[in-house]
């Protein structure tokens, strides 16, 4: 089978339509079969076709003028060799269930290809995850590392469920010490059972700035004056440039009746408890609107979360809402 290069496509005559009918390669167009660059290179490498005036290496060199091409080809080859039919777009690729192909099945995965050094734009990823969900597809990131290994991540819009822990309404006096507020609370108080703060001494609990500000806003904690509240917020903001996003996410999690506690030991903002469970099940990292993050950092976060049996959620804070997005490693 001999094809011709036309632009970015490899064109085969219509008598080669069997590649499409039996293997799901290319797309019929009139009396020809059009192969995407990844498809053509894969078939050349398997000695299924040839391209006039090109070898595998010369065609690879041509296509690699697009810096993203090589990793896309590596993903295409990996998916094919796992027994799936894969075609270009939407996103970068669509993948069919094993045993299914174009015309005789529907695509199951939508895949975006990245490298380990790429910067992830969360707003874009959220939109692509929503688009995949609306099309009833599973959205994956396929990340190629510097040694040409591929790691797959399932991306889901995943708001934490109601944690079942009712909020407290008991009012209490608070005293500010730097970025901490002390409240007088007995060991069996509702503040302890709701995991607010940490025991400071026999009579007091020490609350973090985020916990304190949340309870001040709800009218649960009363400081000596309105000025004291404003001054406490200013001092807390000066010492924590992520405070606004953290407070927004903390508030949302508490409104969902979950219990967020610091996630510092895991490298993130919060570990989250729900339903009276003894161990946290979720790590949450708050992000301001438009924030980006290297894929390598996300990879480390997901690996750590999985190693301690937790989900990894990133909470993207917008003006009117908070969008939670889950990254989870998966095997195809």
UniProtKB/TrEMBL annotation:
SUPFAM superfamilies: tRNA-intron endonuclease catalytic domain-like, tRNA-intron endonuclease N-terminal domain-like
Domain of life (superkingdom): Archaea
Span of domain tRNA intron endonuclease N-terminal: 1-52, 174-227
Keywords: Lyase, tRNA processing
Keyword Lyase: yes
GO BP terms, alphabetized: tRNA-type intron splice site recognition and cleavage
Enzyme class: lyase
InterPro entries registered for this protein in UniProt: tRNA_endonuc-like_dom_sf, tRNA_intron_Endo_cat-like_sf, tRNA_intron_Endonuc_cat-like, tRNA_intron_Endonuc_N, tRNA_intron_Endonuc_N_sf, tRNA_splic
The name this protein goes by in its record: tRNA-intron lyase
Organism: Methanomicrobium antiquum
């Amino acid at each position: 089978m001999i094809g011709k290069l036309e632009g970015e496509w490899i064109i085969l005559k219509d008598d080669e339509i069997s590649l499409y009918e039996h293997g799901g390669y290319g797309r019929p167009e009139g009396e020809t079969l059009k192969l995407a660059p990844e498809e053509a290179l894969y078939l050349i490498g398997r000695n299924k076709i040839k391209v006039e005036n090109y070898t595998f290496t010369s065609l690879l060199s041509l296509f690699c003028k697009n810096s993203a091409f090589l990793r896309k080809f590596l993903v295409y080859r990996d998916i094919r060799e796992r027994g799936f039919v894969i075609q270009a777009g939407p996103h970068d690729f669509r993948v069919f269930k094993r045993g299914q192909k174009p015309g005789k099945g529907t695509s199951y995965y939508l895949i975006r290809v990245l490298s380990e050094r790429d910067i992830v734009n969360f707003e874009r990823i959220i939109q692509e995850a929503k688009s995949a969900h609306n099309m009833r597809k599973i959205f994956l990131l396929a990340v190629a590392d510097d040694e040409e290994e591929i790691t797959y991540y399932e991306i889901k819009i995943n708001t934490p469920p109601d944690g079942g822990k009712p909020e407290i309404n008991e009012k209490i006096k608070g005293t500010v010490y730097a970025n901490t507020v002390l409240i007088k609370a007995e060991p069996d108080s509702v503040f302890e059972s709701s995991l607010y703060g940490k025991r400071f001494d026999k009579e007091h609990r020490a609350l973090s700035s985020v916990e304190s500000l949340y309870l001040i806003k709800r009218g649960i904690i009363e400081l000596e004056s309105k000025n004291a509240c404003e001054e406490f917020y200013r001092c807390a903001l000066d010492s924590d440039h992520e405070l606004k996003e953290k407070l927004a996410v903390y508030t949302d999690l508490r409104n969902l009746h979950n219990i967020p506690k610091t996630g510092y030991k895991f490298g993130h903002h919060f570990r989250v408890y729900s339903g009276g469970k003894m161990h946290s099940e979720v790590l949450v990292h708050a992000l301001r609107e438009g924030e980006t993050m290297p894929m390598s950092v996300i990879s480390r976060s997901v690996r750590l979360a999985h190693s301690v049996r937790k989900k990894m959620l990133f909470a993207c804070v917008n003006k009117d809402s908070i969008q939670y997005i889950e990254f989870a490693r998966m095997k195809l």
